[in-house]
Amino acid sequence: PGGKIPKHMHPEIDHEQYVLKGRMKIGIGDEVHSIKAGDAVYIPAGTFHWYVNDGDEDVEFICVIPKKNEYKTIYDKG
Fold first, then answer.
1. Residue-number span of the structural domain to which 33 is assigned
2. 69 CB-side CA count, 13 A
3. pTM of this prediction?
4. Mean pLDDT, residues 49-56
5. How many domains does the chain have?
6. Residue 37 maps to which CATH number?
């Protein structure tokens, strides 16, 4: 609970995430979504996104990404 991943993006990688346990807020571009166990989200390449565990339990999720030779992450400095 209370954990977060700061705003960032991957310029060349689309990815999908499936929540196994808990609930969290995820920002994708300009939208904010509350997601929970059983939900899935798609994040297009080049889209800033972030996560906050705003629940009372741990969050577990699977992140599915294509295999690439280079995996870049760019963090928002704003």
1. 4-75
2. 0
3. 0.84
4. 94
5. 1
6. 2.60.120.10
